């Protein structure tokens, strides 16, 4: 750093304009500068660069761009991990039917859980006024209520921790000047998406608390709002992970061949297919569609069940008919694993770096593991531990697809 700064400083200090930086005439020795040797500054003395920084109101010098990129990249990698934890915990909350146990939402007030017997009784009485207790859990005890309440409480508190993990370091990095202009816009978008995600979560929960006199079905949240809530979380996760990988992993200098171009496009399409398959899982969860046909590869005794298109209009079946929703999820899963298999064999025909090959192999292994988990979950009538592992596997598979895409990204000129 001294070698880079010293020649410009020689010219700068030797010019007349340097007199603007000091209160009066002074020798080079008083400034703490010696061109022939390194002379330590006395207490209370400042070098020219530090003095300029202090006079301009900047008490700290920004990190070199590479070090700043590494710090921001590690932060976003941790943030993507917290989002993954929120998605997994939200899936477990849904599987244990705990999501409607907290019937109101307060940003600060609800952070303190009930502590006394009276407070727990009051919380339980609020829950008893809503459809889930009246229709499904009318014989629930206070001890059972505490379990589902704490499940939802932990999910909400984790969501607040995710928000702090994004917003507080973002403010710190911004103040330190470690964010480039483009990165500032991206970080603002991520922080805004975190806040939107929290509001969308409560909007989803409200749909399960509404009274529906004409329906005697089990109270559940809207599958549309559940898919929107999961989809925004996946977008937040993908954007954070992609940005962190782009900052942390050095880009390969790959020759721009036609084969590589096709491989890059195919990898992008496959990642989109994996994302769509994970999103369709929200409709499966929202409609309990995993419980309608617990057989594989056929659905019951046929490949195409008779009740696939029972709703009218036909498009309604895609989002509201549990049979069609499960059929679509199966089809998307099989298509995804087929595409990943083809992607792997295509990657073997292109000369790639070792790390890129490792990403392709990892993606293939994750795909077949996820298929095995999905089939097992279906055949065993959706046990909570196995179903939660299957939901976590979708995030792992999406991460593998993003990693491979990142490895194949175009080297900037």
Automatic annotation (TrEMBL):
Pathway: Porphyrin-containing compound metabolism; heme A biosynthesis; heme A from heme O: step 1/1
GO cellular component: cytochrome complex; mitochondrial inner membrane; nucleoplasm
Keywords: Heme biosynthesis, Iron, Membrane, Metal-binding, Oxidoreductase, Transmembrane, Transmembrane helix
UniProt GO MF annotations: heme A synthase activity; metal ion binding; oxidoreductase activity, acting on NAD(P)H, heme protein as acceptor; oxidoreductase activity, acting on the CH-CH group of donors
Highest taxon of source: Eukaryota
Catalytic reaction list: Fe(II)-heme o + 2 A + H2O = Fe(II)-heme a + 2 AH2
Residue ranges crossing the lipid bilayer per the database entry: 157-175, 187-205, 225-249, 270-293, 329-346, 358-382
Primary location class: membrane
InterPro entries in the record: COX15/CtaA_fam, HemeA_Synthase_type2, Peptidase_S1_PA
CC cofactor: heme b
Membrane topology reported for the UniProt record: Multi-pass membrane protein
The protein, known as: Cytochrome c oxidase assembly protein 15
Organism: Cricetulus griseus (Chinese hamster)
Taxonomic lineage: Eukaryota, Metazoa, Chordata, Craniata, Vertebrata
């Amino acid at each position: 750093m001294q070698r880079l700064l010293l020649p410009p400083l020689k010219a700068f200090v030797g010019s007349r304009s340097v007199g603007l930086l000091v209160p009066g005439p002074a020798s080079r020795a008083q400034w703490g500068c010696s061109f022939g040797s390194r002379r330590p500054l006395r207490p209370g003395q400042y070098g020219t660069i530090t003095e300029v920084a202090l006079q301009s109101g900047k008490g700290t010098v920004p990190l070199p761009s590479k070090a700043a990129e590494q710090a921001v990249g590690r932060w976003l990698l941790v943030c993507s991990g917290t989002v993954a934890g929120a998605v997994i915990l939200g899936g477990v909350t849904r599987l244990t039917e705990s999501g409607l146990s907290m019937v109101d939402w307060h940003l600060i007030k609800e952070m303190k859980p009930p502590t006394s017997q009276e407070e727990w009784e009051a919380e339980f009485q609020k829950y008893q006024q809503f459809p889930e207790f009246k229709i499904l859990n009318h014989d629930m005890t206070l001890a059972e209520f505490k379990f589902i309440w704490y499940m939802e409480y932990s999910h909400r508190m984790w969501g607040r921790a995710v928000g702090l993990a994004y917003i507080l370091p973002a403010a710190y990095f911004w103040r330190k000047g470690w964010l480039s202009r483009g990165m500032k816009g991206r970080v603002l978008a991520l922080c805004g998406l975190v806040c939107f995600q929290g509001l969308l979560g409560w909007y989803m929960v409200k749909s399960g608390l509404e009274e529906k006199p004409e329906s005697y079905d089990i109270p559940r949240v809207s599958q549309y709002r559940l898919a929107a809530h999961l989809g925004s979380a996946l977008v937040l996760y993908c954007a954070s992970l992609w940005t962190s990988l782009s900052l942390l992993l050095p880009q390969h200098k790959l020759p721009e061949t036609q084969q590589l171009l096709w491989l890059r496009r195919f990898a992008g399409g496959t990642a989109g297919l994996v994302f769509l398959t994970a999103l369709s899982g929200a409709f499966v969860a929202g409609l309990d569609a995993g419980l309608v046909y617990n057989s594989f590869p056929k659905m019951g005794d046929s490949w195409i069940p008779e009740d696939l298109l029972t709703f009218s209009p036909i498009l309604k079946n895609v989002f509201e008919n549990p049979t069609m929703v499960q059929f679509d999820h199966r089809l998307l899963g099989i298509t995804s694993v087929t595409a990943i298999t083809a992607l792997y064999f295509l990657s073997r025909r292109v000369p790639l770096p070792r790390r890129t090959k490792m990403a392709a192999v990892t993606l293939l292994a994750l795909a077949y593991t996820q298929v095995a988990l999905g089939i097992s979950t279906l055949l065993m009538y959706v046990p909570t531990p196995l179903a939660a592992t299957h939901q976590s596997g979708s995030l792992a598979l999406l991460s593998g697809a993003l990693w491979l895409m990142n490895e194949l990204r175009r080297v900037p000129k």
